[in-house]
Amino acid sequence: MGTHYVVAVAGATGAVGREMLKTLEQRNFPASKIKALASSRSAGSTVPFGDGELLVEELTEKSFEGVDIALFSAGGGTSQKFAPHAALAGCVVVDNSSAWRMDDRCPLVVPEVNPDDLDWHNGIIANPNCSTIQMVVALKPLHDAAQIKRVVVSTYQAVSGTGHKAITELETQVRQLFNLQEPEVKVYPHRIAFNCLPQIDVFLDNGYTKEEMKMVNETVKIMGDPSIKVTATTVRVPVFYGHSEAINLEFGRKLTADEARAVLSRAPGVTVLDNPAEGIYPMALNAAGEDDTFVGRIREDDTIENGLNLWCVADNIRKGAALNAVQIAEKLIEKNLVTVSDRTVFEADAGL
Ligand code: A2P
Question: Domain of 24?
Fold first, then answer.
């Protein structure tokens, strides 16, 4: 029997936290103990794990003593506050929030794309934004084949990305509308049922949303190539699970649709579903609950030199969040990196 690790899940009662627990169990993660952490509101309650359940404890600065690996999905503010304490306690954090993604001290990792960035971690590793993860899984093999110069992406994002409360909001609004009641709007700025919202997160001074700029900046950091230009329009749609993306690519050299199909068929974590004549293409409905990123509708774009269009779908809670975090933890183990080398680096963040 190999080494087993004490693992904590911070935000264990949330949409992503629950999926993290499910993923750890399904993949037989080498854990000797799993601690479920959440706010004081849910301390004392339980969350399902395998055939049993785990008692939820309150997340505090002291939660990480004796913990080897912590998976965080409890919001940016919570990560900002508690992840440094975890790292200082010698625990390696994989953080699903946006708090540490663009911090130069933290690698931003998708294991199929840049696993070696884990080599320079200081105790906090950032899990990228859900829409970015599935996009770079598809882009990396194409970039290696023909050098991507520019990406134009439009997203169709599920409500589960906003968390439990948004899943409930869509369900409730649909029910209210069918009962001829006025739908309650609490989570999003407008009604999401039977609607599309061209706003995810807040607007920035440049007219883009924060979500759009995450896709721009995170793609460059993960791919490690500042020459790749990305522009994004991110849209929330009334789908529960699974983000879809229409991606237009411009390459440095010609890549035919057949070549792209062949490259993607060999790529780790990608399944090509591309037979339009038979009505076969990726859909959120089928991607939900699956591990892979699905790519289809691959076709050449003749309006630019070396252009290609494709459609990319993945389960935003799984590959877009929980699975990618667990895969990072597995890669850390494989690379013998479950250790914090420089404990001083986050001292100021912890207020020390
Ligand atoms: P809780 O259920 O106790 O509020 P979601 O993204 O689905 O809304 O889930 C958010 C997760 O983050 C939940 O597990 C939630 O716990 C947790 N969380 C939110 N705020 C805090 C906090 N201040 N401390 C610890 N956990 C928090």
Answer: 5-99+321-346
